[in-house]
From TrEMBL:
UniProt-annotated location(s): Membrane
Keyword Transmembrane helix found: yes
Protein name: Copper transport protein
Pfam families for this protein: Ctr (PF04145)
Keywords carried by this UniProt record: Copper, Copper transport, Ion transport, Membrane, Transmembrane, Transmembrane helix, Transport
Annotated family: Belongs to the copper transporter (Ctr) (TC 1.A.56) family. SLC31A subfamily.
Signal peptide coordinates: none
Molecular-function GO term, any one: copper ion transmembrane transporter activity
Superkingdom of origin: Eukaryota
Origin species: Macrolepiota fuliginosa MF-IS2
CC terms in the record's Gene Ontology section: plasma membrane
Transmembrane regions listed in the UniProt entry: 37-54, 121-146
Coiled-coil segments on the chain, per record: none
Length: 164
């Protein structure tokens, strides 16, 4: 493989252009996903835009779930203390020391928390790989999608509102 600094890297399925460009022909995530026509490129950009919206929606739902899970954990801890005879009052110095600062492990909360984080990490890595194509249309679709998604859903994550 001849690597000249003036040309893209030669790959088995074509050339990798290592500068920002708008032309198609870049492999996106899978060997079979190579948008080459204008229509295929437009569809790819729309799909990535929607995926970026989904990422911001997922972040908002995760933040709302964290608030909900925190309240449920406090209720569970209060119920546990009440069934054990109350223990020291929270106003006493002994009660202040015995109050838990980390919520207990609740499988239904913590497994869901881990799954949501895993999906968000997967989306982040997928966006990183898409940006590495150096296709300006794909990069703009990600940035605009994340911005629009944050505009639409960011207030839920910032305020911790719980949707019922």
């Amino acid at each position: 493989m001849d690597m000249n600094m003036d040309m893209g890297m030669e790959l088995a399925s074509g050339q990798m252009i290592t500068y920002l460009h708008f032309q198609g022909g870049d492999v996106l995530w899978f060997q079979g996903w190579v948008p080459q026509s204008h229509g295929a490129m437009a569809g790819t950009c729309i799909g990535i835009f929607l995926l970026a919206l989904f990422d911001r929606w997922l972040a908002a739902m995760r933040a709302a779930a964290e608030v909900y899970w925190g309240k449920r954990a406090q209720i569970a801890l209060a119920n546990k203390l009440n069934t054990q005879g109350g223990g020291p009052s929270p106003q006493s110095p002994m009660g202040t020391l015995s109050m838990r600062t980390i919520p207990p492990f609740i499988p239904s909360h913590d497994i869901a928390r881990g799954l949501l984080h895993g999906v968000q990490a997967l989306l982040t890595f997928a966006f990183m790989l898409a940006v590495m194509t150096f296709n300006a249309g794909i990069i703009l679709s990600i940035v605009i999608g994340l911005g629009v998604g944050q505009t639409l859903f960011g207030r839920y994550a910032a305020s911790g509102l719980v949707l019922h």
